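User: I'll paste a sequence; please echo it back and then give the predicted structure.

Assistant: Echoing your sequence first, then the prediction.
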Amino acid sequence: MIINPNNDGIDHINVYSKGETKLGKLLSNFAHTPFKHPKYGFFESVEGFWYFKKTGAIYTELKHLHGYKAKQVGKKLCPLSDAQDDIGLTDEFKEDILEAIRLKLRQNTYIVKMMIDCDLPFEHYYSYGNKIQKLPEYRWIIDELERIRKVSKEWYIKKHKKG
């Protein structure tokens, strides 16, 4: 699919804090969507959790951050440079992030309802005017959001089926 950023919300949903749709912004790791992790406690965002884990789960101030501030502080505390941001994305780290996303959605069910009500495919890219930068190295997050939507829709239909 060729992506036109002007069609965000028309033929796709950009999962991006600066996207055009409320759903895309809420699905972003930057979103202020508080959740409680059973092992690590309360977080204001998945982005805060991301850097909390990436820095060795020692900087508790990251738990209270969301949006760009979480990334900014996380990068300052993280030993890796911007150019190496995707280094260290082990399978274990990815699973920790996916679990944080699942927790966020379980504890903010209005977002899942929005997902169920939407049939547009999820994408993730940065938009600079009409120019886009796709981020295939993070497709695993989008794939999980699509999986969650599919399972949630199936559950919802089964629960509300008359007969």
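The beta strands are 13-14, 35-37, 41-43, 122-123, 125-128, 131-134. Helices lie at 22-27, 46-54, 67-77, 91-107, 109-116, 139-160.
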